[in-house]
Amino acid sequence: MTQKPGSIHISCQNCGISQLCLPYTLDTNSLNRLDAIIERKRPYQKGDTLFSNGEPLHSLFAVRSGSFKTFNVDNNGNEQITSFHLPGDLIGFTSIANETYQGYSEALETSMVCEIPFNHLESLSRQLPALHKQILKLMSEEIKQDQHLLSAVNSKSAESRLATFFLELSSRFMIRGLSPSEFRLSMTRNEIGNYLGITVETVSRILSRFQKEKWLKVEGRFIHILDEHSLKRISGVQAVNCPLKTVNY
């Protein structure tokens, strides 16, 4: 396959997170056809945007490395974070209905994506039932989680929200083959608070309490979960082991 200028060729077959993304369940021939439409460009630096609100939908984006946040901006210029995305996550599903990007997506650190032109993906999915099914599955999982988390934010305390946030991050790192108990946050405390609907001061206060109780250890942006059972008790769940994206309050 001929590479486009400025692109980096890393095939789906050689991708370590393909089981979380569109290639999952595809046979070799279908995988090669999908691979042929994907554009892999140079890294995005922290603060670079994938898309802005109102722009025509042209692509979906699969995070290959790094992380992104998606957010809306109100009439007063205030930002409201709606999602955090890690490797394997697809960004842009919510823009399909209106065919324009809903909100903004911005890199939280140096990151790479696989850009999937939507018109090509739409055409290919009509020809490949397995791909069409996987797209529907990923969309269904996103809707299911949004419903679950909307219910959770309406009934949970600030401490419970933050505990849930760390537990779901832990789960996401685990399914990516990374440590579920020790990880680095790419988002700031202010961004976490914005996302969870609590102030940065509340985030800091709760983190201090969690450390005092020896439930977790915080060193800058590094988190070490020491007592998962207590965090689960605070969060109000028995287990957090499903492949969900980060809580989306």
Can you tell me about this structure?
This protein has a four-stranded antiparallel sheet with strand order 1-8-3-6. Helix 2 crosses helix 3, helix 4 packs across helix 7 and helix 5 crosses helix 6. Helices cover 38% and strands 19% of the residues. The protein has two domains: 130 residues, Jelly Rolls, CATH 2.60.120.10; 80 residues, Arc Repressor Mutant, subunit A. A hairpin with a 5-residue loop joins strand 4 and strand 5. The protein is α+β, with helices and mostly antiparallel strands and 249 residues long. 32% of the residues are buried.
* Rg estimate, integer Å: 19 Å
Query: End-to-end distance, in Å?
Result: 41 Å
Q: What is the subunit organization of this protein?
A: single chain
Per DSSP, the total helix count is 7
Tell me the overall shape. Answer: globular
What CATH architecture label of the largest domain applies?
Sandwich
